[in-house]
Amino acid sequence: MTAEIISGTQISKTILAEIKDEVEKMKAKHGKVPGLATILVGKNPASVSYVTLKVKTALSVGFNEIQDDQPEDIPEADLLALIDKYNKDPDIHGILVQLPLPGHIDEKKVINAISPDKDVDAFHPVNVGRLMICCDKARFLPCTPAGIQELIVRSGIQTCGAEVVVVGRSNIVGKPIAMMMAQKSICANATVTVVHTRTKNLAEHCKRADILIVAAGVPGLVKPEWIKPGATVIDVGVNRVGVNETTGKAILKGDVDFDAARKIAGKITPVPGGVGPMTIAMLMKNTLKSAQYVLGDL
Ligand code: L34
Question: What angle do CA 84, 281, 277 make, to 5 degrees?
């Protein structure tokens, strides 16, 4: 058996085309487009790569995009003041501060400073709380988990009653996707297990999964014998394992041993071209929603 590839590149293109249409409608109706401020502190190569893609994508769907690059040594107070400026700017509907931040800046303080109404990452405690209680004010879902859910739904994978195993318990991916997959909703209704570094018999848990979501940040962690034949495997890991000597580009590897897993799984996401592009598409969706809400169209 060779698993079918779930292409995040393809699916994200469809979503971005939908968003572009909505932006055009907004422009025609209100003379306005969604505004996104992207703040990058320092020059972490992975962050530069992701933010560059985010900026390019925002422009391609017709957003007003403000790319705000700041030096590595920006004082925390200055960064907080910058966030406050965008909080007050009526043309900005989404604020993104790319993580990780340099050690002298308190990440929690920064996340708390972003207005929950412009928190298109859904990292603010108010939005995390809304996600947890599934209330209708949950306008923003965190981008990577929302992207994973879209991949699953748009690939026609049944989640109702399915065994979902999530490897990893981060605030950005593991915890929110586990909560989302357990929600009472047609896109979810799964039975969810969260496993992590202290779990006994990691392999045994993974083997039960109809849908295995791996967000551990450990290249090649999941071996083919951990996968139930025919299962769906979603690989969230984007690990930079080296540099291609001819192109100078980073070599990316997922958390799953892809070539071996492909022979066992039913469906699988590749790295690159799987969850990564979906994260970016969902950021655009959140920014669009934010603007639609402000304009009274949601
Ligand atoms: N604030 N910080 C904030 N929001 C986020 O949603 C993120 N994340 C994570 C890191 N820090 C963040 C991202 O944007 C991870 N992440 C992310 C975004 C995009 C991609 C990967 C991770 C992506 O597009 N990956 C491509 C390869 C890109 C490359 O060549 O470097 C892929 O196909 O997987």
Answer: 115
Please report which residue ranges of 7-142 form alpha helices under DSSP H: 8-30, 45-60, 76-88, 107-113, 125-133
By the 8 A CB rule, do 239 and 255 touch? yes
**Annotation marks residue 54 as catalytic:** yes
- Ligand 1 binding pocket includes 22 (Cβ within 6 Å): no
Nearest CA owner, ligand 1 atom 14: 50
The pTM for the full model equals 0.97
**Which residue in 117, 118, 119, 121 is the catalytic one?**
121
Does 140 contact ligand 1 (Cβ within 6 A)? no
Helices (H), the chain: 8-30, 45-60, 76-88, 107-113, 125-133, 143-154, 174-182, 202-207, 258-261, 275-294
Q: pLDDT per residue over 171-202, tens digit each?
A: 999 999 999 999 999 999 999 999 999 999 99
Q: Is 96 in the pocket of ligand 1 (CB under 6 A)?
A: yes
For tokens 């202290």, what's the residue?
Answer: 198
Half-sphere exposure of 77 (CA within 13 A, CB side): 0
The total of other beta-carbon atoms located within 10 Å of residue 145's CB is 29
